[in-house]
Automatic annotation (TrEMBL):
InterPro entries in UniProt: UbiA_prenyltransferase, UbiA_sf, UBIAD1
Keywords, alphabetical: Cell membrane, Membrane, Menaquinone biosynthesis, Transferase, Transmembrane, Transmembrane helix
Protein's pathway: Quinol/quinone metabolism; menaquinone biosynthesis
Pfam families: UbiA
Protein name: 1,4-dihydroxy-2-naphthoate octaprenyltransferase
Main location per the UniProt record: membrane
Cleaved signal peptide residues: none
Domain of life where this protein originates: Bacteria
Organism: Marinobacterium maritimum
Transmembrane parts of this sequence: 26-44, 50-71, 95-115, 121-140, 147-168, 174-193, 214-232, 238-257, 278-298
Length: 300
């Protein structure tokens, strides 16, 4: 019992740098949804081996976990200026090492598909890994430059979906790239919701996220823009014949109401914003998959 109490107190002391909080399991739907969409897009063109499809999902979750665990590395520079923060710095370093281990395991999964698909897939893997490390590691550190919301659109959205499809033998086409956009916009929306939730603390700590740079009101407008763009892009895919079952996505609209209300909540009541946005992403992603595998059946 004492050990449990000590561990709990330690996690409380570490705050957002405690391992489980740094792992951010609420974000795992990003990897699961994007990889699943890639798998289905590949399966629409050729038979897909179930075991290899599971490998793609595992690799995607490992990559997501790695990105999450290294996410706070740039905070070390800020914490060094504050006395008594050595335990936080050490926690960040431990999380960073765990993140690198996740990347190593994801790379092992990726190597299996490089053997099958060749150098083109290797290039996708290298781009993804470099982008993931550059997200928060100096000297690139996209996060501190306010580019995180933009970069995750490509890295955890487009590249994840395309990579999953190509790993299973699908050719890279313009149609495939277009089909990645709606969910990729929601991936960016999820990160933006995290920035909006933490706006006051990031501003106080000198973290130059996109939301801190452009201001809370402008970031809220950007949130609405990404949300609207998701459904407008889905409508465009419908018109192009690339998502015939797009009407299924309308079922996700009621879930949008909660995060929209939370955008206007005071800072101390804004904590559920990111999980609420994650639910929108998860349900939208599942419905997107339904639209792909059963496009001619309407929900009404």
């Amino acid at each position: 019992m004492d050990a449990v109490k000590i561990s709990y107190k330690t996690d409380q002391d570490l705050g957002k740098y405690a391992f489980l909080r740094a792992l951010r399991p609420f974000s795992f739907p990003v990897a699961l949804v994007t990889c699943l969409i890639g798998i289905l897009l590949a399966a629409m063109q050729r038979p897909v081996n179930l075991f290899e499809a599971l490998m793609v999902l595992v690799g995607g979750v490992l990559l997501q976990a790695g990105v999450n665990l290294i996410n706070d590395h740039a905070d070390i520079r800020l914490l060094r200026r504050q006395p008594g923060r050595e335990h936080l710095i050490e926690a960040i370093r431990q999380n960073f090492r765990s993140g690198l281990l996740c990347f190593l395991l994801a790379a092992a999964v990726g190597f299996h598909f490089v053997i099958q698909q060749g150098l083109g897939f290797l290039l996708l893997c290298v781009l993804g890994l470099v982008g993931a490390l550059g997200y928060t590691v100096s000297p690139i550190n996209y996060k501190s430059r306010g580019l995180g919301v933009v970069l995750v659109f490509w890295l955890m959205g487009v590249l994840m979906i395309v990579g999953s499809a190509v790993a299973l033998g699908a050719p890279m086409t313009l149609a495939l790239l277009l089909q990645t956009v709606p969910v990729s916009l929601l991936v960016s929306l999820l990160l933006l919701s995290n920035e909006l939730r933490d706006y006051e603390s990031d501003l106080r700590d000198g973290l130059h996220t996109l939301t801190v740079r452009i201001g809370y009101a402008a970031a809220v407008r950007f949130y609405f823009g990404l949300l609207a763009g998701t459904y407008l892009m889905s409508a465009m895919l419908l018109s192009l014949g690339l998502l015939p079952g797009a009407f299924w996505l309308l079922l996700s609209l009621p879930l949008v109401l909660r995060p929209v209300r939370l955008l206007r909540a005071p800072a101390d009541q804004r904590t559920p914003l990111t999980p609420a946005t994650a639910r929108v992403l998860l349900v939208f992603g599942v419905l997107f998959c339904v639209a792909l595998v059963n496009p001619w059946s309407l929900p009404f």
